[in-house]
Each structure stands twice: as C-alpha cells, then as structure tokens.
Specification:
The chain has helices at residues 35-46, 54-61, 70-85, 152-158; strands at residues 9-12, 15-18, 23-26, 29-31, 52-53, 95-98, 102-105, 110-112, 129-134, 144-151, 169-170. With 171 residues, it is of the alpha+beta class. The strands form three sheets. A five-stranded antiparallel β-sheet has the order 4-3-2-1-8, covered by helices on one side. A three-stranded antiparallel β-sheet has the order 5-7-6. A hairpin with a 2-residue loop joins strand 3 (23-26) and strand 4. Helix 1 (35-46) packs across helix 3. Mean pLDDT is 74; it is low at 114-171.
Length: 171
C-alpha cells in the first residue's frame, strides 16, 4: 500500500498521527516533521510490527527512478523521525533497526479509520456495553433498541427495587 493510501488516525504512546491531516501530535501539540520523515512514519506505522526493507522505503519516498543518494536519504529520514519521536536506536521504543535489512515500528498502535479516534481505554467504563438491534424487518424505517450490559452486582442491588425486565447482566 502506498503511503498516500493510508487515511487513518493512529495513537501510539503519547502521540497521535492523523494521516488525513498529515500531522503528528504529542500531548496534543503539533510535532514538526519534514515530508520524507512524515511519509516514512506513515509507512512504518501502517505496517507496524512488520519489517520494512530499505528498498521499500526508497520506493515509497522517492520512487524507482531516482538520481539521489537514497542510502543517505533513508538514514537522514530515520534520524529525523527518531528525533521527533524522542526515540533511541540503542534502546528503541518506536523504531527498531534490523541491521542490513530495514526497520520495524514496534510501539503498540491503536488505529481508527477516517480520522475518528476512540477515547483512550481508561475513559470508557469497562462494565458498560452498549449496542443496537433492529426490531422491524419491513419496508418502513426500522426501530432500534439499545441494550446495556450492567454488572451483576449493580443489578443485584436493584433487583428488589423493580429492575426493568430484559436487562442483560455482565457476568
């Protein structure tokens, strides 16, 4: 997949990479990156956990018909990207070097399509699950019902106070 084909927003550690906006943010503040390091970051994050060879990087950043020192260009783009991410080649948290082969993005990444980023996991209570179900299957607009999973301990407390029928409980 070409770098320009990614349209997601990715969250990793204290950073958010918004591909559609072509922007990297740390703690909500923009991080300045030149075009080639940004394209390299998008490529590596999009293929997180996979080895991306130096030749794949060259093809993605410059194309096959280049007349520049691409070896130095790859090294420079990696160095600038590591500086922006505050990463170290000796003890990497984002970009791992595979000597003689290429690079791998090693940080855990959460991605959402179309630039929609879910709230951090801690922001959503683990005990609440909400879903929708279609109630009618006719030509008319279907009604929907929302179900909520409530922990048994809460349901048990309310059972004597007339809890609604049909409430699902989480085990």
């Amino acid at each position: 997949m070409a770098v320009s084909e990614y349209r997601e927003t990715f969250r990793f550690r204290d950073c958010v990479l918004d591909v559609a906006a072509y922007e990297l943010r740390r703690h909500g503040h923009p991080v300045r990156l030149e075009r080639q390091p940004m394209d390299l970051l998008i490529l590596l994050v999009g293929r997180r956990g996979q080895l991306v060879s130096r030749s794949e990087i060259v093809n993605a950043l410059w194309g096959k018909e280049v007349f520049v020192d691409v070896e130095n260009g790859v090294n420079t783009a990696i160095r600038k990207l590591r500086q922006a991410l505050r990463d170290s080649p000796d003890a990497p948290t984002f970009i791992e070097t595979v000597p003689g082969k290429g690079y791998r993005f090693i940080a855990a990444v959460e991605g959402q399509p179309d630039g929609v980023l879910a709230p951090p996991p801690a922001a959503v209570p683990a005990s609440v699950v909400v879903g929708e179900q279609t109630l009618a299957a006719s030509a008319e607009p279907a009604a929907t019902a929302t179900s909520v999973a409530i922990p048994e301990s809460v349901v048990g407390e309310r059972a004597g106070r007339g809890a609604p029928v049909g409430v699902e409980t989480a085990g």
